[in-house]
Amino acid sequence: MQPLGYGHAWGQPADPLDAIFAALADPTRRAILARLAEGETAVSDLAEPFALSQPAISKHLKVLENAGLVTRGRDAQRRPRRLEAKPLAEATDWLEKYRRFWENRFQNMDAVLDELKTLEKKRRRAASNKNKPNAGDSP
Fold this sequence. Notes:
Elements: H1 16-24, H2 27-36, H3 43-47, H4 54-66, E1 70-72, E2 81-83, H5 85-131
Antiparallel strand pairs: 1-2
Helix pairs in contact: 1-4, 1-5
């Protein structure tokens, strides 16, 4: 039995968004994407800032490629990698729907809290006025 949301091959996401978010879940892969956002880069240059072997970096790149976030170019003997923006835009669009949903919820909650504060102020004012002696009363 396979987990929901996964395709026929073990670990292969059925939905491209699943692959994108799975790739983005790793901090090393996010750092690689940040580096590629500066421009096309060779694998050896991508591996420099990490305490990882070249094969480990290649595995991370394979995950990013499978998610469509990175493509492989050809430059003579080099095979530089480049960032692909379209999958990130798709993930952003998906997230934007939920951001709007939660923003609306928080605005509704703010309105309820404001109403409760107003009611509390009125209650305190009424209680305060109730405890004040009337001007015509004598001790």
